[in-house]
Specification:
Layout lengths: L10 E6 L3 H6 L7 E5 L9 H14 L6 E5 L6 H6 L10 E4 L5 H11 L5 E6 L2 H5 L1 H6 L4 E6 L1 H8 L6 H4 L1 H13 L3 E4 L8 H14 L3 E4 L5 H7 L4 H20 L5 E4 L2 E4 H23 L27 E3 L4 E2 L2 H11 L4 H4 L1 H6 L9 H16 L3 E12 L8 E13 L5 E11 L5 E12 L21 H11 L8 H4 L13 E3 L4 E2 L2 H10 L5 H4 L1 H4 L11 H11 L1 H4 L4 E10 L8 E13 L4 E12 L19 E12 L3
Parallel strand pairs: 1-2, 1-8, 2-3, 3-4, 4-5, 5-6, 6-7, 7-8
Antiparallel strand pairs: 9-10, 11-14, 12-14, 13-16, 13-19, 14-15, 15-16, 17-20, 18-20, 19-22, 20-21, 21-22
Helix pairs in contact: 12-13, 14-20
């Protein structure tokens, strides 16, 4: 049995004492605490057998890694007093008292327990318990936790089910104040619909936001979601460590300092105290994780929905065939044009494309890229912190409306970060058409969270990635398209600028700006079937690092490509991407501008050339200053995107 130490109480599962199957399974669950129930879930004629089963499982030691609590019946009944007799045969961590009305109920229970190693939890589920919350919270040092009994409380208050969370807010807040004032834990009540995983997750987010330490559960399928929501994220931990470190450094330099500036915000001691609580929570969770090392942890949820892959789920050489094949339609192409306003003639006019020897206007290069990328997100990026970069991206063949694109990936590298919270996964992904022909091929690396942070670190394998698609590769890919450049229509393209008109190191201000609309970036994310929560789930992200959704990086790429038309109208075909950096997050409401620099040139044929271009997308800043990096390689704060790519341009004929 664990002594009186602070414990993580994220997930607390009710287990009926009369359910042998549930009791047996309890030792395999990744849950912080178990409440062995003798009250509501146990029929009157099954109480005695349930007591025997609870005594047996506590004494077996199979759940010694978890906090073990016994919920008894009301002490106003003979059954409740009989329940306490199990303490003559076993020692749980705590007794949970139901139907508490006043501080006197806690005092009475404490007298009956008569064992300082056994603590007291109380159910806050009556109107009187809410009225007397402060007196209850301070009455005894043995009292360690408030448990909200939302079902019973709602019934007593006459609250309709649909309004329960709103109507109980006053009760939550009063119990919250009392628990925080007297430094005891507070747990939210149960979520009854075990099939509604989305609703449960939303309620967990709400509970966490209100300040609950965790949530009581009625089914094992709820555990993974609950632990995820009530565990500090890597971003929160990183920021907390930085705040504490910065404040401690300032205090060493000036012991009297009370306020510092951190990342542009004023930080006082109260912020430092909050950061320390986040770090303490992680420390407690890790201590329990160490206790759990011998217990196998399931990577996949027991429910029917998928929680995505974590860092430890990936292995070198692992091959993934991604769902769902996507047939690109003319409607997709039209919607893409509507979202970005792209005016490149090759993707706007089938007649223009036919003059260059193609059968019709092909799918826009970045529409193809984003669709192929979106297919990989559920398997690669669902638990990602950030997509870190791209390399060796090649547009090998044109894709047309009617083509069906599938994506496949292979893990080519793994590197666990020193903090042990996450790691970098390197993948090589390929998009194929219905003929099994590769139309796009690229490599990327992404930072992914670990689920079980106690697992031993793996040996790093970092692949060698080329910093550019070579000139020879560009020439070879370009020739695959067999463009007939003698028929290039400069009037239709919108410019008479040719390959020879561009000089290496030349900078181009594209002048135009496009404001990111909330509805448009959301529509774009769904167009690509990209289900990364950070982009589309405001309910979750309003409690995250930025307090709102981040615009998908591919949306910014497409915007900057569209803007670059004014100055690069005849850079009609993207042939390869050397690399890209999403330097700063973009949010709805920002206006994106762009400028480009010509880095390199290569002759493809007598009539066709390729420009290596670096295009920078800027947020709320016009590009006449050509913002990029300082001498230390740090990007200017205005830079959202820096994309290095090869584009085909007609030569002077």
């Amino acid at each position: 049995m664990r002594k009186d130490v602070r414990k993580p109480r994220r997930s607390i599962l009710y287990v009926p004492g009369s359910n042998e199957k549930a009791l047996k399974k309890s030792s395999t669950l990744d849950v912080d605490a178990l409440i062995y129930d003798l009250e509501d879930s146990v029929a009157p004629n099954a109480k005695e057998g349930a007591r025997d089963s609870i005594i047996k499982i506590i004494n077996s030691g199979v759940n010694k890694d978890k906090e073990q609590v016994v919920r008894i019946n009301s002490l106003d009944t003979d059954i409740g007093r009989d329940d306490l007799k199990i303490l003559d045969h076993c020692i749980p961590d705590a007794i949970l008292i139901p139907k508490v009305n006043s501080a006197d109920d806690v005092i009475e229970c404490e007298k009956l327990i008569n064992n300082e190693d056994i603590k007291i939890w109380v159910m806050m589920e009556t109107a009187l318990s809410i009225v007397n919350a402060y007196e209850i919270a301070k009455v005894s040092k043995a009292l360690k936790c408030f448990v909200m009994g939302t079902n019973d409380l709602s019934t007593e208050l006459g609250i309709e089910e649909d309004l329960k969370r709103t109507a109980l807010k006053t009760s939550f807040e009063k119990c919250m104040m009392a628990s925080k004032a007297y430094k005891i834990s507070i747990l939210d009540g149960v979520f009854n619909d075990i099939k509604d995983s989305e609703g449960f997750e939303q309620e967990c987010v709400y509970s966490h936001g209100l300040g609950f330490d965790g949530k009581t559960l009625i089914h094992p399928s709820q555990i993974n979601i609950c632990n995820k929501i009530f565990t500090p994220t890597p971003d929160q931990l990183e920021k907390a460590r930085s705040i504490v470190s910065a404040f401690e450094k300032a205090r060493k330099e000036d012991p009297e300092v009370g306020v510092i500036v951190f990342e542009g915000s004023q930080i006082e001691e109260l912020h430092v105290a909050h950061a320390r609580r986040i770090l303490e929570a992680e420390k407690l969770i890790m201590e329990v994780s160490k206790d759990n090392e011998s217990i196998p942890i399931e990577v996949k949820s027991g429910s029917k929905y998928k929680i995505g892959n974590f860092f430890e789920d990936f292995s070198m050489g692992q091959k993934i065939s991604h769902a769902t094949p996507r047939t690109i339609t003319l409607g997709d192409c039209s919607l893409y044009t509507a979202l970005y306003g792209s005016r490149y003639a090759l993707h706007s006019s089938s007649e223009f494309a036919k003059q260059l020897s193609l059968k019709e206007s092909p799918v826009d290069d970045f529409l193809l890229f984003n669709i192929a990328f979106g297919k990989t997100v559920p398997d690669i990026s669902l638990n990602a912190i950030a997509n870190l970069g791209y390399a060796e991206c090649k547009f090998l063949k044109p894709a047309y409306p009617g083509d069906t694109i599938t994506s496949h990936s292979e893990v080519i590298g793994l590197k666990e970060n020193s903090n042990g919270d996450n790691g970098v996964v390197y993948v090589h992904s390929t998009g194929l058409n219905q003929k099994k022909e590769a139309v796009i091929d690229y490599k990327r690396w992404v930072m992914v969270r670990k689920k079980n942070k106690s697992l031993p670190k793996i040996e790093s394998v970092i692949p060698k990635l080329n910093s550019e698609v070579t000139k020879d590769e560009v020439i070879a890919i370009s020739k695959n398209y067999q463009f007939e450049m003698k028929n290039y229509d400069f009037t239709a393209a919108g410019s008479d600028l040719v390959f020879e008109d561009y000089k290496i190191d030349e900078k181009i201000n594209h002048i135009d700006g496009i404001t990111v609309e909330e509805a448009e970036h959301m529509m774009a994310t769904k167009l690509y079937q990209n289900n990364a929560k950070v982009h589309f789930n405001h309910f979750v992200e309003k409690g995250g690092r930025f307090g709102k959704r981040i615009v998908y990086g591919g949306h910014v790429i497409s915007l900057t490509r569209s803007i670059s038309f004014n100055g690069l109208s005849n850079a009609f075909k993207i042939i390869a991407i050397n690399g890209g950096t999403h330097a700063s997050p973009c949010f709805a409401g920002k206006t994106v501008f762009a400028w480009s620099k010509i880095i390199e040139k290569v002759d493809v044929s007598d009539t066709l050339g390729a420009l290596r271009i670096r295009t920078n997308g800027l947020g709320d800043a016009q590009p006449y200053q050509f913002q990029h990096q300082d001498q230390n390689g740090k990007f200017n704060s205005d830079v959202l995107l820096s994309l290095d790519y090869w584009a085909l341009v007609p030569k002077k004929i």
